[in-house]
Amino acid sequence: AQSVAQPEDQVNVAEGNPLTVKCTYSVSGNPYLFWYVQYPNRGLQFLLKYITGDNLVKGSYGFEAEFNKSQTSFHLKKPSALVSDSALYFCAVRVDTGRRALTFGSGTRLQVQP
Amino acid sequence: GAGVSQSPSNKVTEKGKDVELRCDPISGHTALYWYRQSLGQGLEFLIYFQGNSAPDKSGLPSDRFSAERTGGSVSTLTIQRTQQEDSAVYLCASSLRQGDNQPQHFGDGTRLSIL
Lengths: 114, 115
What we know:
heterodimer, A: 114 residues, mainly beta, 4-stranded antiparallel β-sheet, globular, B: 115 residues
């Protein structure tokens, strides 16, 4: 079975400061990892993915994430937060073989204060 | 539009009624997924289509739930004899078939409320 943990229900950060949203995963096999963002009354919007290769992945809107195999983590980061980054963030995983459906974490609400 | 389209955006119905939710994927996307998002359960996978066939139905919570896809495009999710616990946002996603690493692109969902 595969699972994703997002240990923080909410992250608060001041505008201009760096932000980190944490994600750890558990799979049997090689993971494909994804980050999505959800704004109110909207669907999930793809931010970035890790499939293979460089452990540091860059995505949309200045976000990046670092894949750490030994710690089974895939934390989302941004050097300088914007108020408009305030939203709900989901980490998701699937393995490279078998089931195509994504397993999602419970989500982390990011609140960026002006 | 270029994105995944879902209708209706909101649906309110009485317990015991049947409902149909529609998803129109991105043109050319052969893979289609249904998920359910609810406060208590988070995001749950329901069913996956590749073309018109559904190789993975493992997430459907009961036999009241069914889905079909015709012409490799539009999909409908049907819930029969709705119960209050079916209240949730139903999300559809699509992705390209080529390669297994393509991201899923989501619609804005159908918010279903069972009275």
